[in-house]
Amino acid sequence: MILLKLFFEFFLIGAFTFGGGYAMIPLIRQVVLEQGWITEELFLDFIAVAESTPGPIAINMATFIGATQAGILGSIIATLGVVLPSFLIILLVASIFIYVLKNKYVKAFLDGIKPVIVGLIISTGLILLFKAIGYQSLTVFNYQPQLLVMLAILLSVYYGHKLLFKRKINSILFILLSASMGITTFMMWEIFA
Amino acid sequence: MKFQENICSLLYNQKLEVQVMEDSNLKTTKSSYVKELLALFLMFLKLGAFTFGGGYAMISLIKENIVEKKKWIDEEEMLEIIGIAESTPGPIAINMATFIGYKRAKVLGSIVSTLGVVLPSLIIIFTISLFFEQFLQNIYVKFAFSGIKIGVGILILNAGIDMIKKVEKKIIPILMLIAIIVFMILMEVLEISFSSIYLILIGGIIGLFVYSLKNIKARDKNDLT
Fold first, then answer.
1. ipTM of the complex model
2. Which of A34, A57, A59, A142 to mutate to test the interface with B (most CBs of B within 10 A)?
């Protein structure tokens, strides 16, 4: 039963995400929390792992969530679910429907989707960032000054690099940097406070 | 008689030769097909194992390996595939593997390529999942992850901000973008869950609506003039 559910939910996710891995994070987060498969805490931790291991983020997510629910079979089924829609669609496009994408109505539909995707990614980024610095709900804020210090440093490193070198910092490097920032900030705080 | 016999044997031999040639042709095409499949599988296995950071990172690897080294497709075809991959759902890496695999070796090629690109993630992540929760119990790991969460938040937010470039600078798309951000944050604050799949569909329908409206306006203008 859980296998069927995994397959179905990830099939839907695979069928409705345009624009790559980041666009998938909001959808996966919603499904995972609604189904109560893993906690938001664990989900956030895992995004970092999915980012710093090779392979498409969507596949990494599906494999991990499948594994937590039903072991190796779960991860295979969830991965299959998330892969199948794009596989079938591309197969159709490559074999017969190459002209469908040039259709004006299809283009209009896809144009309408674009701002929604961008909006979803931005709002997810904002929400995750707020949660990372201690927001829990409208009335509960888990205040930890160390987290705010880290946010300030990491933001300035990220945008400082962008301004200085005119390109984005390598995301694996940035995650490694964030991890060492986490350790040093909390340790320093314990020593001095 | 002798002449006829000669002709006969000649014809027969020729036929035989042709048959032999056809057989060996069949064999070489078969074995070269298997070789092609193997090459596709290995190539995408490599891409799957060495692409960190999502589909866009894979595009540069595909350009280097498949376009420049192997010359399986040319640059123009690659751009076409990226366009198709972007306008169809699913991870870009899967779209690329399926498309290039199909182009080289039809359905079997696309299956083999997709399998190749997925396999490394499946193996690596499954192994990690076995000890992930114990790993998180460690206090230093906890410290590290409180930093990582902030870092990942910044990365996602920035990926979204970068994509604003792709949104048309017109009133309706910009309003839609802002409305979605406000709506999603409101839903989060009020702790209401609402599937984003509906939002995506609504977005598509608005796109269609705007397009038909434009068409009607253009037609009216034509009628007037």
1. 0.78
2. A59
